[in-house]
Design a protein that fits this description.
The structure is a single chain. By secondary structure, this protein is α+β, with helices and mostly antiparallel strands. Helices cover about 45% and strands about 20% of the residues. It has 5 helices and 9 strands. Helix 2 runs parallel beside helix 5.
Length: about 210
């Protein structure tokens, strides 16, 4: 008995504790709404919509060659982990004229994973600026109309993020150039919002049965 107890403490308990704390972030609270309503994509591309989807939204700009690292980070750390969910998608806004480059990028990403839920929306530069401004964040686009930050948009077009982030206070977006930030913050926040919708779906199904 004593040996079994020692083995449990040494091997089983650490695993149980890890699973408890790793999943705990999903089980409590909701991901704060930072912007109540952001514009949908209808005017820029009628084939892509944010409404009724959980979207990771980004802006690749005109220099896609220098954004490949960030795109690969996002694909490996976030998309490959959550892309299996039916309502999950990645949408990248890109200035018109970069269609060939984005298709090449999508092809390269496709060598590492399925990319059927990666979408690219093309718009004139002034529309890209206007759309980004409509997000209402505290961030700016670079001179090439890109940002390393991506944003979580929920099914009701609300921008979700953190209002008590230990580093930034209010955190609107996640820096795709930082693997640590994707691993330590964005993974948790995407888990939370997916858990919200799973719980809401279970509740709706339960209410229908009553």
């Amino acid at each position: 008995m004593k040996k079994k107890a020692v083995l449990f403490i040494l091997f089983v308990f650490p695993v149980v504790a890890y699973l408890f704390f790793a999943s705990g972030v999903n089980n409590f609270g909701k991901l704060p709404i930072l912007v109540e309503k952001v514009p949908d994509m209808n005017e820029m591309d009628p084939n892509v919509r944010l409404k009724d989807k959980i979207t990771v939204l980004g802006f690749l700009g005109n220099d896609l060659e220098n954004k490949k690292g960030s795109a690969f980070n996002l694909n490996q750390k976030i998309y490959k982990r959550f892309g299996e969910f039916n309502d999950f998608q990645v949408v990248m806004v890109v200035p018109k004229g970069n269609e060939t480059e984005t298709m090449e990028l999508k092809k390269e990403l496709g060598e590492l994973s399925e990319v059927d839920k990666w979408y690219f929306v093309y718009a004139p530069e002034d529309e890209v600026r206007s759309y980004f401004k409509g997000l209402g964040t505290n961030l700016d686009l670079g001179s090439d109309l890109s940002t390393p930050y991506v944003f979580i948009i929920d099914k009701d077009l609300a921008l979700r993020g953190r209002n008590d982030d230990e580093d930034e206070g209010v955190k609107y977006g996640f820096d795709t150039s930082s693997v640590a930030e994707l691993n330590n913050k964005m993974v948790d926040d995407v888990k939370i919002i997916l858990a919200e919708y799973r719980l809401a779906l279970k509740k709706n199904n339960a209410d229908r049965i009553k």
